[in-house]
């Protein structure tokens, strides 16, 4: 039986556990997996924006070439490149070929990661896990999607065993229907959708006008086809083009329902994520390796996790994944400086913020996918790049990134800025 002093000591340790956990998170160790370079392309409107005629091949080559040139790392040291991608046909061919065309040697391997909207974060986790396991020393994690040049995603034909299963059959539901399911099940009114979406546009507008995104975006030199003449012209794409200046809840309230066939029909083209093209990439290695190579340490990857739930309400995935990752590090939500949560739909954004009781000032300070766009495979990596840039701007340390995932999942990761 413990003494009163031992019990008091135990209580004190429990109370101070959060602070100790954060201190441990911020500590620096030789075996930490660190990020030495992080950048993204602009996010542009699918079939309308600056990257509409840029294939996934060329998008990857542009990004990987910039990482090779700007990181000042000998490309011969890169052992693997993992590309998060959802829609591209023959994506494994494309990934490996783009790595070679971007100037990396034949010794640099490549693979594809696909867990729908979390594919970019999964690529980060895959490279980090290989480094932790000692399989490789240095790798690049990429998320990329050209939604302009690839087929629209959707559930394929599936077997009778799946279609007759009460839960597995839910994966036949389109994403728009899952948004309406969340709105209906959790009583989220249309007004709440539009208020959340308007705030995303307003934050993104402020961030863009203030130049906050300058250090996260790398320009892309490409060609754009003139719809009138059919001729291609050389352009440099250097800014996000989906942000609608002057957006208000009132203006969004005038947008008609996108899915009148599903009640409560609260989801619209104004309060859901935009279909978008873009890519993001991160260079990872152990801290000891970065120091030996003289590489600047931008941030530390602490960990990531995934959670599952009913596919019909897949949007609420972050409400499960975020508490799960926080519990693994014994952290409270108050100890997190920034939450980057994918705004697949305003319905899920409203639910997750309210369910978790998050401080809105900490959530997507530069706007989210409603304003910026959601290139499916890119988003998980893009969120990390954005979060690290914002942590630097605010002189803060810890970010959580999270997203809902098609087929009923949520993923979340923790990153520490060291800039």
From TrEMBL:
Pfam families, sorted? Thiolase_C (PF02803), Thiolase_N (PF00108)
Q: Which GO terms describe its biological process?
A: fatty acid beta-oxidation; phenylacetate catabolic process
Q: Which GO terms describe its molecular function?
A: acetyl-CoA C-acyltransferase activity
In the UniProt record, does the keyword Acyltransferase occur? yes
Q: Where is this region: Disordered?
A: 1-22
Q: Residues in domain Thiolase C-terminal? A: 297-415
Which residues constitute the catalytic centre?
117, 374, 404
Record keywords: Acyltransferase, Transferase
Top-level taxonomic group: Eukaryota
Cofactors, names only: K(+)
Query: Which pathway, per its entry?
Result: Lipid metabolism; fatty acid metabolism
Asked if the record carries the keyword Magnesium, the reply is: no
Q: Which residues form the Thiolase N-terminal domain?
A: 33-288
Q: What class of enzyme is it?
A: transferase
**GO CC aspect terms:** peroxisome
Q: What is its EC number?
A: 2.3.1.16
Instruction: Check the record and name the InterPro entries matching this protein.
Output: Thiolase, Thiolase-like, Thiolase-like_sf_Thiolase, Thiolase_AS, Thiolase_C, Thiolase_CS, Thiolase_N
Q: Which reaction does it catalyse?
A: an acyl-CoA + acetyl-CoA = a 3-oxoacyl-CoA + CoA
Its family remark reads:
Belongs to the thiolase-like superfamily. Thiolase family.
Spell out the protein name for this chain: acetyl-CoA C-acyltransferase
Q: Which species does the entry assign this protein to?
A: Aspergillus ruber (strain CBS 135680)
